[in-house]
Specification:
The structure holds 2 protein chains of 2 kinds.
Chain A: E1 2-4, H1 5-11, E2 12-13, H2 18-29, E3 32-35, E4 39-42, H3 55-66, E5 69-70, E6 92-94, E7 102-109, H4 118-126, H5 134-146, E8 150-154, E9 162-166, E10 172-174, E11 180-182, E12 188-192, E13 195-199, E14 203-204, E15 217-223, H6 226-235, H7 241-248, H8 252-268, E16 272-280, E17 287-292, H9 293-300, H10 306-315, E18 319-325, E19 328-335, H11 345-356, H12 377-391, E20 395-396, E21 402-403, H13 405-411, E22 418-419, E23 422-423, E24 440-441, H14 446-456, E25 463-473, E26 479-490, H15 496-511, E27 516-517, E28 528-538, E29 541-549, H16 551-556, E30 562-569
Parallel strand pairs in A: 6-9, 20-25
Antiparallel strand pairs in A: 1-4, 2-5, 3-4, 7-15, 7-16, 8-15, 9-12, 10-11, 12-13, 13-14, 17-19, 18-19, 21-24, 22-23, 25-26, 26-30, 27-28, 28-29, 29-30
Helix pairs in contact in A: 2-3, 5-8, 6-7, 9-11, 10-11, 12-15
Chain B: H1 2-18, H2 22-33, H3 38-41, H4 51-86, H5 110-123, E1 128-129, E2 135-137, H6 138-141, E3 174-176, H7 184-191, E4 195-204, E5 216-226, H8 231-246, E6 252-256, E7 262-271, E8 288-297, H9 299-304, E9 313-319, H10 321-329, H11 342-345
Parallel strand pairs in B: 1-4
Antiparallel strand pairs in B: 2-3, 4-5, 5-9, 6-7, 7-8, 8-9
Helix pairs in contact in B: 1-4, 2-4, 5-10
The chains are: A alpha+beta, B alpha+beta.
């Protein structure tokens, strides 16, 4: 959300310089991103503050942290333009009230498409939205101020009654961006007598778009089910300013205020409200949350006077009624309608803490009994192994948990079926890899060490490294386990005994006699030297191996030296 | 000219076929394609040719060039395959007399060093390590942490999901953990209260890699649950960490921050290491650096862990070792950590 500084000054009679607002926002409210002379961008990623997606919500917040006042007042219900006008209805049919609990359509005539005024264009540009024309810009300006998206259809191009329903199979429509969209049965559509004219909450249709010749519009203000909008916006990769606001949640109060403001602005452009339909199945109740003095103080860790609690919460729009229970103040806190994120006592305590100032909370040492000891032997072993190996002259490397595409290719045998010690189907595969470099999880660590060794040998005569980390496999069952993998590459015709002796030395102090040497390599394994391979066994089970890498594989990786590896389960 | 080319071809094809070692082949390669190699120098004489001749000689030359390159490559593989056959006769013994151990200097990875320092510091406060899996379910990574499906906060953690085809699982259910917080409920259920654990290790994010972003990253997190645990304790833990790891003069500052599994939530800033608060290039003039994320464990999460939120409260506190290591050791590129590049690792 980009806050236009000019616009903010219109909505708030600021009692603090803008630099103070910029300083206080991250300390009291939310982190900021880019800041220029024209706008302050709030870091909304993942945030749950729907109210901060509107200039009015931001205005309330900034008045609270700077002790200022807003310049606007909210209209009462009986002050809405359409009240008491006895206007005809526009034909509307809402097929699914749960997916569209509030749906309003207003018909406005007598409009003329023109460029927007300079002032409007500046507000839009500050907010990061481009100007289209006066009719479309009104919808964006109102969305920015009230947080409520809306859409204007060219009334001349809408046939019959407007409907809201889920898509049927094989329905399609060209969206405003000119792309043909095929719908699935989970997409919520706006329709007319001929078919879809808009994708609810995501994007309008091309056919009913406002053009230079538009004089009459059907103005839509609605609240749709966030989950449905999210599904569609994600599936079509169409996140928008509007869908973001649907996802964060909307309120009926703001929706009506927005509708009122939209009609008002169109009237200023010379438009006339001809007809209106409001299909309202949305119940909006005041939320009351209980807050106790005892819980505030115990969770924040300092005593905050009850008068301060009331002051802080009043500033940001909460109403409080208090009573005493056994020497402890208890408040019934009424949540302002625009704070959809407030649900429980802890939410209110955060409000108190941030208005008090997180940075003023002093440090307090931990108290209480220490928990019972839990087994730390695995962690001790992992660290001791590392220091022991480093002491023996090895350098610790860490590599990705994935196999690179190059490693997978280099390890495929000539018939391309076998991959590594398992077939490729036994590897854990990522459903949505960023690229082929993050498609498969490693089921051994040594191939990654081999890959890095090829690079290191460009600069070093010998490489002696180890990695302790996890290896993963999908079959026979999904599994991850800690492994130690060691590698020695040097000018020698037989580096394996040296590596084996280092391993024995490292492990003997740590786990007693760790393994017995087992048999030779399994048939068909082309990765290792035909004779220089032995399994490592413990309690009759295979736990690892020591081997020389087959020179053919080493050569494929670009290594001309002999390479020994040892890998063992920890 | 055509004859010359044919002559080179015949002569070198013979030499290539007769070569018995890679070294000989390297010599042949140089004689053809080196700085003064025959193939390298030949085109210099083309300028004297007529246009007609050039039309014939040009393609012929290119063809021969490719053929010779290919012949060397093929012979190289043959020589290699020959040498691989001899491997069958190589002896295998690990029971050699004690070798003279070569003196080498090894190096611990910088992340291991930073984490060990951190672990030892928090052990002094009674925290113990607790492990959680890298491959996990949607349930432990999101659901029980108060992040139900469809929650806007899921966008904070762009997630790698596992392909379900060889797992027999539902699509979108199994994933690579996006944070070490997948340990929280497991620790609460297994260990109960009072609880002081450290959860450390690799996490994964669907994120394009550049000098500041990695898809594979470590996290360090502590979970602390007891009676009357509060935000002032959180401030203590933040200061304790920063002063121990980054220096006695590095103050901590809390700010409001939203994470769905804590309430209140806090971002933890440290005084900028480089300018000590004056404002510099590294901190973007702010004087502070965001170094950790934390908060009071959400009552729903405590309940999911079998702990009564009316009786107990808790702190979850974590930092990104990659970022802190970059600041502490002056590392410019986050990709260095997993590069495996010994030129980088030997500095530590």
């Amino acid at each position: 959300m980009k806050i236009s500084i000019d616009w903010l000054k219109e909505l708030v009679d600021l009692k603090a310089p803008i630099d103070e607002v910029i300083r206080l926002l991250p300390l009291r409210t939310i982190g900021t991103k880019e800041i220029t002379h024209d706008f302050i961008e709030l870091d909304m990623k993942g945030y749950n503050r729907a109210d901060l997606l509107s200039m009015r919500g931001v205005a309330y917040e900034i008045t609270a942290i700077t002790d200022s006042k807003v310049t606007f007042s909210e209209p009462k219900e009986n002050e809405y333009i359409w009240m008491g006008q006895n206007l005809p209805e526009t034909p509307v049919k809402v097929g699914d009230q749960e997916l569209s609990p509030l749906y309003c359509i207003a018909k406005i005539t007598g409009l003329k498409v023109e460029p927007s005024s300079k002032k409007w264009v500046k507000k839009l540009i500050d907010s990061g939205i481009r100007t289209v024309n006066n009719i479309a810009d009104v919808t964006n300006l109102v969305m920015l101020e009230y947080g409520q998206p809306s859409h204007a259809f060219d009334a001349a191009k809408v046939k019959g009654s407007v409907g809201v329903r889920l898509a049927q199979k094989d329905e399609r429509m060209t969206t405003l961006d000119g792309k043909i969209r095929n719908f699935t049965e989970t997409d919520l559509l706006i329709t007319d007598g001929d078919g879809p004219i808009g994708l609810a909450g995501v994007m309008g249709g091309k056919e009913s778009e406002i053009t230079d010749t538009t004089t009459e519009i059907l103005l839509e203000v609605a609240i749709f089910d966030p989950k449905t909008i999210r599904k569609t916006a994600n599936r079509l990769a169409l996140p928008s300013e509007a869908s973001t606001r649907f996802l964060h949640g909307l309120t009926k109060t703001r929706a009506f205020q927005a509708l009122n403001a939209l009609i008002g602005m169109y009237q200023e452009l010379g438009g006339k409200l001809e007809a209106i339909s409001i299909v309202d199945n949305l119940e909006e109740k005041e939320k009351v949350v209980i807050l106790t003095q005892e819980k505030i103080n115990s969770l924040i860790g300092i005593d905050i006077p009850p008068t301060d609690v009331e002051l802080f919460l009043n500033k940001i729009g909460f109403k409080l009624a208090s009573h005493m229970t056994s020497g402890n103040v208890v408040w019934e806190v009424t949540v302002p309608y625009w704070r959809l994120d407030i649900e429980i006592e802890a939410d209110l305590i955060e409000e108190v803490a941030r208005m008090y100032g997180y940075e003023k909370i002093p440090p307090q040492k931990l108290r209480g009994k220490l928990p019972e000891k839990i087994d730390q032997s695995l962690f001790d072993l992992l660290y001791n192994l590392k220091t022991k190996l480093v002491g023996l002259g090895l350098t610790e490397v860490q590599t990705y948990s994935f196999y690179s595409s190059k490693t997978i290719n280099d390890l495929r045998s000539s018939d391309r079926k076998l991959c590594l010690r398992l077939t490729i189907n036994d590897l854990v595969k990522i459903a949505n890899p960023i690229s082929s470099e993050t498609e498969y999880l490693r089921n051994d660590i040594w191939p990654n060490l081999l890959e890095k060794t090829a690079e290191n040998l460009k600069y070093f005569k010998e490489v002696v490294v180890f990695e302790i980390g996890k290896a993963y496999q999908a079959k026979p069952q999904l599994q991850e386990e800690y492994r130690l993998s060691m590698l020695l590459a040097k000018d020698s015709t037989d580096p394996t005994p040296e590596l084996y002796q280092i391993a024995q030395e490292a492990l003997k102090h740590l786990r007693g006699e760790p393994w017995l040497l087992g048999g030779g390599k399994p048939d068909g394994n082309e990765y290792f030297h035909p004779t220089r391979f032995a399994t490592l066994e413990k309690d009759g089970k295979e736990v690892g191996f020591v081997a020389e890498i087959h020179p053919r594989i080493a050569n494929k990786f670009g290594i001309e030296k002999r390479v020994a590896v040892l890998e063992i389960k920890i | 000219m055509e004859e010359r080319i044919e002559k080179i071809k015949t002569e070198y094809q013979n030499r290539i076929q007769q070569a018995q070692t890679l070294k000989e082949l390297d010599e042949v390669f140089l004689a053809l394609f080196g700085k003064t190699g025959e193939i390298t120098l030949l085109p210099k004489d083309f300028s004297s040719l007529s246009v007609e001749d050039k039309k014939i000689v040009g393609p012929l030359f290119n063809q021969v060039k490719i053929e010779l390159e290919k012949a060397i490559e093929e012979r190289r593989n043959e020589v290699r395959e020959e040498s691989y056959k001899k491997l069958e006769t190589e002896k295998f013994s690990l029971q050699l007399p004690k070798l003279q151990a070569k003196e080498r200097k090894g190096h611990l990875h910088p992340l291991t060093q930073l984490l060990q320092e951190t672990i030892e510091a928090f052990e002094k406060l009674g925290f113990q390590q607790f492990d959680a899996p890298h491959i996990d379910s949607d349930y432990y990574n999101f659901e029980v942490l108060n992040i139900p499906e469809g929650h806007p906060a899921r966008n904070l953690w762009d997630t790698f999901y596992l392909d379900p085809y060889n797992l027999g699982s539902q699509p979108g259910r199994m994933l690579l953990r996006t944070h070490t917080s997948n340990s929280q409920i497991r620790a609460m259920k297994q260990l109960g209260t009072p609880l002081r654990i450290m959860s450390i290790g690799r996490c994964f994010r669907y994120e394009a890699v550049d000098a500041r972003h990695e898809h594979t990253l470590d996290q360090f997190e502590i979970v602390y649950v007891d009676k009357k645990v509060n935000m002032a304790n959180l401030q203590y833990l933040s200061e304790y960490f920063l002063k121990t790891i980054l220096g006695k003069d590095i103050k901590a500052r809390m700010r409001p921050k939203y994470y769905p599994f804590v309430e209140p939530g806090a971002g933890v800033d440290g005084l900028c290491l480089f300018c000590k608060g004056k404002g510099c290039r590294v901190c973007g003039g702010a004087g502070w650096l965001e170094l950790a994320g934390a908060g009071m464990i959400h009552p729903t999460v405590l309940k999911n862990g079998g702990i009564d939120p009316n009786e107990y409260s808790g702190i979850a506190w974590g930092f990104g070792p990659l970022r802190v290591a970059m600041l502490k050791y002056g590392i410019e590129d986050v990709r260095s950590f997993l590069s495996g590049d010994l030129r980088f690792l030997e500095k530590f």
